[in-house]
Amino acid sequence: MTEFTYAIKDPNGIHARPAGMLVKECAKYSCSITIDGNGKTADAKKIFAVMGLGVRSGDTITLTFDGSDEAEAKAHISEFIGKNL
Asked: What pLDDT is recorded for position 70?
């Protein structure tokens, strides 16, 4: 299991478009990916769960990766988040 923490820079937080993009990227991996934000935890492969976190600009999220391809997933998703959120 490995984790990645990030402070959201997008002025609108995690709204529909970036949430959909994030879910699509997470779905490429077989490992379990969860996202923690605002005291809630969600499956990062489910759009309504991610949007339900209510993450805003400046909030910190933690993604947890657990499974056979967790290292590859963490590397790709952390890069994706840095460019898009």
From this structure: 96
- pTM value is 0.92
Q: List, for the chain, all residue ranges whose pLDDT scores fall below the cut of 50.
A: none
Closest CA to 39 of 60, 58, 16, 20: 60
β-strand partners of 24: none
Which candidate in 2, 9, 15, 40 is catalytic?
15
Residues 64 and 6 sit within 8 Å (Cβ to Cβ)? no
Distance CA 22, CA 14 (A): 9
Q: Is 76 a catalytic residue?
A: no
- Distances, alpha carbon 23 to alpha carbons 29, 38, 81, in Å: 11, 18, 11
